[in-house]
Amino acid sequence: MTLPRLVTEIPGPVSRRLQAERAQAVPPGFGVTLPVFVARATDSTLEDVDGNEFIDFASGIAVTSVGAANPRVRERIAAQAERFTHTCFMVTEYEGYVRVAQWLNDRVPGDHEKRTGLFTTGAEAVENAVKIARSYTGRPGVLVVDEAYHGRSLLTLGMTAKEHPYKTSFGPFPADIVRVPNANPLRGRPVAEVLAEIERIVDEHGGEAFAALVVEPIQGEGGFVVPAPGFLAGLRTIADRHGIVLVIDEIQSGLGRTGRLFASEHEDVTADLLLTAKALGAGLPLSAVTGRADIMDAVHPGGLGGTYAGNPLACEAALAVFEILEEPGVLEAVADIERTVRAALEPLRHEIGVVADVRGRGAMMAVEFADPDTLAPRADLAQRISAACHAAGVLTLTCGTHGNVIRLLPPLVIDPQILRAGLDILVGAIRTATADPTDPEGEA
Ligand code: PLZ
């Protein structure tokens, strides 16, 4: 069978009918990338209620890394559901929580003693990392990076950079958040200059102002920006110099996504606190703060928690994810995904001027569209190409502060042939859109 398989117009009649009901039941504040309703999934595809099967280059935004219907995940969740679905870990305990904590403590980089606290969403992990860092340091300030994304709760929105649609009309945001420049290799200044500027900003506030410096090792929503080499190590040095807790947000980049368990391993940088979510629960809501025991232990008993934090079904899903990630060949396959994506997209960078960059690591790859002379972002192209992919049966996502980046987040277990089929469609869509004579800004 060839994939993708399209048997109706997109969206099909059943999806359209459900869409009309949704519009009555759900406010428009919730957006949608591809308005089809999903019936079932495989390791590589999503099938909608009209029988169309899409190649999945989204993984539910880097969540279903082991596939959206992984049998091992399903079995462990089902077995746990037979036993019990919830107790609240703060009321009575269960073993799965401790096993998840132990696995993360063993695998998160750094030889020091570690502890892990579990939460529900990524934003909650970020908020709790800030709480823990404040408790440990006794300081208020939080340093964040240009183009960063850390969530949609009010503290994390204050930390997120992009104004629209995330922040528009939702302020005021919490105080004491200070933004520093990013070492974006395509658009930023040289890394030494950026680090000097950050050092200056920290000094300006007095070194004692900041509890935490929070950074994504590869920015996700911000545009899949792989920082210039030396940036993360430079931040580590600045954090050490001023006694600031370095929080590495691996919510999107972590747990095998980049071909290593953690993206920060590529730069050999050790976090004080490292955050995971998304792929951790394979779709069941679970997030974690893992870090130095002395920092984690600084919080008073009872200071951390949440009704659903570390839910037992989600912990079982995580234990299945861990088993799968440690199977021989799984992380190697992620390196193959990167090679396949680069082989398909890198030639375009030389052929087509508006293909400004092909970047990323492992199964976290992206292509950026911008004017070749001015680097002015071409969101119109990214949107048009992504829409063409959707119409042809490939679920792509866009990202970037300017919306001009197409990102690829296939399941780590995607079938290599299906990956190539999806890339063929993407490459065709890029060629068509960039050759379009109606494009006012012309080709390359
Ligand atoms: N930190 C690095 O990528 C979530 C956002 C989807 P939550 N990214 C997807 C959307 O539009 O809401 C994310 C992230 C990084 C934190 C978060 C927040 O994780 O689980 O969405 O709260």
Automatic annotation (TrEMBL):
Pathway: Amino-acid degradation; 4-aminobutanoate degradation. Its cofactor is pyridoxal 5'-phosphate. It is an enzyme of class 2 (transferase). Its EC number is 2.6.1.19, 2.6.1.22. GO terms for biological process: gamma-aminobutyric acid metabolic process. InterPro entries: 4NH2But_aminotransferase_bac, Aminotrans_3, Aminotrans_3_PPA_site, Class-III_PLP-dep_AT, PyrdxlP-dep_Trfase, PyrdxlP-dep_Trfase_major, PyrdxlP-dep_Trfase_small. The keyword Transferase applies. Signal peptide: none annotated. It catalyses: 4-aminobutanoate + 2-oxoglutarate = succinate semialdehyde + L-glutamate; (S)-3-amino-2-methylpropanoate + 2-oxoglutarate = 2-methyl-3-oxopropanoate + L-glutamate. Keywords: Aminotransferase, Pyridoxal phosphate, Transferase. PROSITE patterns: AA_TRANSFER_CLASS_3. The keyword Protein biosynthesis does not apply. Pfam families: Aminotran_3. It comes from the Bacteria. One of its GO terms (molecular function) is (S)-3-amino-2-methylpropionate transaminase activity. Belongs to the class-III pyridoxal-phosphate-dependent aminotransferase family. This is (S)-3-amino-2-methylpropionate transaminase.
